[in-house]
Amino acid sequence: MRHTSSRISQLFFLALFLVLFLMTEYRGSDRIGVAVNAFFRANPLTAASTLLAVKGWVPFLLPGVIVLVLSVLLGRFFCGWLCPLGTVLDLVTGRIRKTAPLTWLKGSVKYWLLLPLLVASLLNLNLAGLLDPIAILVRALTFFVHPLLGETVRSGWVGLYRVFGEGRDVLDPGYRFLRDYLLPFRDTLYPLAFLSALVFILIIFLERFETRNWCRNLCPLGTLLGLVARLSPFSRVPAKLCADCQACRELCPTSFDRELLQKEECILCMECQLHCPNQRVRFRLAGFQPAAGGPVMERRVLLGGLVGGLFLAKLFRFRDPQSQARLLRPPGVRSEGEFLEKCVRCGECMKVCLRSALYPALSQTGIEGLYTPVLIPRLGYCEYNCTLCGQVCPTGAIPDLPVAEKKREVIGKAVFDKNHCIPFALRKECIVCEEHCPIPQKAIRSEVVTERDFSGRPVTVKKPYVVDELCNGCGICENVCPLEGKSGIEVFAVKDRTPLREGGLESGGKGGDPYS
Amino acid sequence: MDRRSFLRVLGLSYLFHRWLLRDLAAAGGPVLAVAEGADYGRITRQAINALGGMGRFVKPGQTVVVKPNMGWDRNAEQGANTHPLVVKAVVEECLKAGAKKVKVFDRTCNDERRCYINSGIEPALRGMKNVEVKHIEDERFRKVPIANGAVLKQWELYDEALGADVFINVPVAKHHGLTRLTLGLKNVMGVMGGNRGSIHKNIDGALADINSVLKSHLVVIDATRVLTAHGPQGGDLRDVKVLNKVIAGTDIVAADAYATTLFGLKPADIAVTVAAHKRGLGEMDLRKVRIIKA
Questions:
Q1: How many CB atoms lie within 10 A of CB A516?
Q2: Which pLDDT does position A337 carry in this prediction?
């Protein structure tokens, strides 16, 4: 274990990352002060891809731009001092026996990944999050590690109840502490949990071939920082391996497998300076100078990357209309196009969602929307007074709205299926949906109908209907419908997501009520 | 309370409160205490004291469940949940009577964390000794056979409610889309597990069934402010009417029947009340109920 400044910084940021991850959860306050979104806002890759897609300025991405500018001056310090995935790799790599580096990973593979992502962003499809290291880590934690931890502890807790019954209460304070600070509140199963875990495990597996394999040869964030690092005036001397020593070859985690320090791979861990047997190595300002080491990439890579981006952005747009009809986005998202420009697929909204209503898209959006959040009302509904997803979204893809405004945002519209809905299909009382509808004037109402039941006896039944003008599509009706399996009322996506009229809800006159 | 201790209480009250016993004997039917005032903690205590005090129901060392309605992510003012001051007063009286532990919970409709906090009940009880405000834990539901169930033959009920020495039902009086009003009888739905929405098909009979196996030893109805429309959730303050009343009694049907009149309705208008009365769970004819203005 090293005890250098860079390692201390790495551990600090990894701890910070994990604490922020755990803080991305409802804990009794309507606002979440700080969340793991801080890491995305300071992330130059997601900042760059979002700004390219939006083609405008997004104020809270300023930290990411600052990191990018700093990288022009200092090089890839982000990778060696901040990146939590890099730290995880540094922590495990010592335990992984190395074979020879994979030669096919060397060279321009990383540009083949980075360029198409950025070009697709220019063409309004923000895919950078799919391969962003921090997003990969957050998704692995959100969809796989955290639920697994939660379920394991919880099933142990339930098991204790089966054995000790009330006696379990002795341990309750301890369990409460775990539940309140460490575990996810709900046991949620996510689609894509396997893929999220697999990508993360694969990155660790790559350490078999060389240290920081992902960081050097694949990571699009590292590649982007490497590109600007070539301009850095801050450089190591001597730039080459010294003929008499060559210790750097062993000390350097990334870039001394060739004779010359690869500036775009140097993560500024300063190991070589600290451990140089002859105290020769210095990092110092040397003035702007074109980095040695030849051109950045061959022309065909550049062109190929451009074409790749075009393909990426245009070839995966097919969407199945049937699942499209149920494609519900988080509250406040009014346009699908704009959402695809901004959403970096980091998974934070799904992590924070109170009722576990949001899930990573797989079938609903086609490949182009992979990992973007969709609301599945049968599994969880959008809580009326909650604005957490907007608060933690790093890029504003889900807008951070005041509660009063968020309540009026339309997610979709509820529609009854009379073939299933109990009062219609069975001529029996129900209206559980009406009871749960959070709209103060009720977007679900009922009319009292007297008719004959199927044995001919007269019955009076309340038959529900939806007041379209008041429905915000929160999905609680579909969620609580007591029918098993398919719900008798379902929320469908709508193109026109103009918010409900103001004054219809808590305060004003009869503005929101078309039937009063 | 078993019969012996009830007799003991009766005997003791005879010695110390001859007037109380006289009242009970004179009426022959159930007694309701109704207190009115703007200090909700105080009127809650007044109503309970008028019945003979919490000591009549809670003995030292007993475990008490206080079951408010806190099913909705609404604040105290909006009238969808039992007022925190009413709940707090009931809990305090239980502790004063010597309760070993007071448990407060509800199976909420909205997110439990938000409901417990936004209702004001969890904050009001925070830091109180021997008081437990926990979320429902699914593993604690257990199947209970309902011997004379008309609609339900068995259902999953919460073991802490079943296991308590005393079960105190503290509903808020409010409008409800299906049952017109929700009061004490319906508040018991908060200890039901499983797919409780499915009982709406025949809710009157189903609630009578549940109340026949889970008896409320004391019912304290919060009518400090009531939702007159768009219940059970409300949300619009124009639907909230301030009545400043608390009703307490041991007869859940009588308590519900009386609370019904506060909405300008007759007890017979509420099918849940009628079904429970027919099941022998209590008296709905208010002429047979002694009402003490506390």
A1: 7
A2: 93
Q: Closest chain B residue to A357 measured between Cα atoms? A: B111
Residue B77 DSSP SS3:
helix
Residues A196 and A141 placed together within one structural domain of the fold: yes
Report if residue A133 sits inside a domain. Answer: yes
Q: Please check whether residue B140 touches A, CB under 8 A.
A: yes
Q: Which residues neighbour A516 within 8 Å (Cβ) at sequence distance 6 or greater?
A: A441, A510
Closest to B236 measured CA to CA, from B113, B74, B119, B86? B74
Q: Provide the residue ranges of all domains of chain B, joining segments of one domain with +.
A: 29-293
Pair (A326, A470) in one structural domain: no
Q: Which residue has the tokens 């697994």?
A: A148
Its domain, for residue A11, covers 1-230+296-379
Chain A residues within 8 A of B137 when measuring between CB atoms: 161
Q: Give the minimum alpha-carbon distance from A348 to chain B in angstroms, rounded to a whole number.
A: 19
- Amino acid in position A18: L
Residue of B nearest to A159 (CA): B139
The 10s digit of each residue's pLDDT in A45-78 is 999 999 999 999 999 899 999 999 999 988 899 9
Total Cβ atoms within 10 A of residue A482: 17
With helix as H, strand as E and coil as C, how does B171-230 read? CEEEEECCCEEECHHHHHHHHECCCHHHHHHHHHHHHHHHHHHCCCCEEEEEEEEEECCC
Give the whole-angstrom CA distance, residue B208 versus residue B270.
Answer: 13
Contact: B200, A430; criterion CB under 8 Å: yes
Q: Does A385 touch chain B (CB under 8 A)?
A: yes
pLDDT number for residue A5:
85
Q: Which two tokens stand for residue A271?
A: 């190991």
**Of the candidates B73, B137, B232, which has its C-beta nearest A435's C-beta?**
B232
Contact A451, A470 (CB under 8 A): no
Domain boundary among A360, A379, A398: A379
Closest by CA to B90, choosing from B134, B50, B56, B42, is B42
Q: Which of A359, A379, A399 is the last residue of a domain?
A: A379
CATH of domain B29-293: 3.40.50.11440
pLDDT tier, B252 (very low <50, low <70, confident <90, very high otherwise): very high
CB contact under 8 A, B114 and A386: yes
* CB-based contact B177 A161, cutoff 8 Å: no
CATH number of the domain that A477 lies in?
Answer: 3.30.70
- Residue type (1 letter), A335: S
B18 touches chain A (CB under 8 A): no
How far is it, in rounded angstroms, from Cα A97 to Cα A2? Answer: 19
Report the pLDDT value the prediction gives residue B15, as an integer from 0 to 100.
57
Q: List C-alpha distances in Å: A434 to A430, A489, B230.
A: 9, 11, 9
Interface contact B201-A430, CB threshold 8 A: yes
Q: Give the chain B residue nearest A356 (alpha carbons).
A: B111
- What is the pLDDT at residue B26? 46
In chain A, which residue's Cα lies nearest the Cα of B201? Answer: A429
Q: Which of B119, B139, B174, B228 to mutate to test the interface with A (most CBs of A within 10 A)?
A: B139
User: Measured at the alpha carbon of residue A154, what is the angle toward residues A149 and A159, in degrees to the nearest 5?
Assistant: 130
Q: Report how many domains make up chain A.
A: 2
pLDDT tens digits, B75-111: 999 999 999 999 999 999 999 999 999 999 999 999 9
The answer to whether the Cβ–Cβ distance between B177 and A462 falls below 8 Å is yes
| pTM for this entry | 0.91
First to last CA, chain A: 72
Task: Count interface pairs A-B at CB distance under 8 A.
Answer: 89
Residues B67, B147: contact at Cβ < 8 Å? no
Instruction: State the best of A185, A429, A459, A516 to mutate against chain B, taking most chain B CBs within 10 Å.
Output: A429
Q: CB distance from A175 to chain B under 8 Å?
A: no
